[in-house]
Amino acid sequence: MLSLAMSRSSSHGILKLSWRSWLRWPGILLVNLVILLLVGVSTLRESVRTWTVDREILALESQANILEGRKFKLAQLAQELVSSERVELDARRRLGWKKDGEQVFVLSGYEAANTKPDEALRESSTVSVLQPVSNPRLWWRYFFAPGI
Description:
67% helix; mainly alpha; 5 helices; elongated
């Protein structure tokens, strides 16, 4: 083997390569480039897929937080609706219920005043429609009747 290598070598000890051996190198280089390209493309695709999944997870987590908050508010509303004070208030308003020893006066045209503000009652109350006011009248009120 040593003698074969020596016979091919030049006087300087460098191995001479034939034209067939030079044709092998571009083929090997091309195969390596194709493998590198395939690995790079698959890595890029997996990175994009991971990024997309992470974005979807964040969106679903924020949606879950919103739904948890809504669930909490609905649970509070459900507790308020079954509370004895709320049942009593509804019975007084809708059914005309009264306690022993109380006298009930019904005033038509007036709405009952609540002693305690209740969001559920405010939402269920009717909305009054405001009459439109002309622009000159608004300016007059702005300059000459600031307290109104």
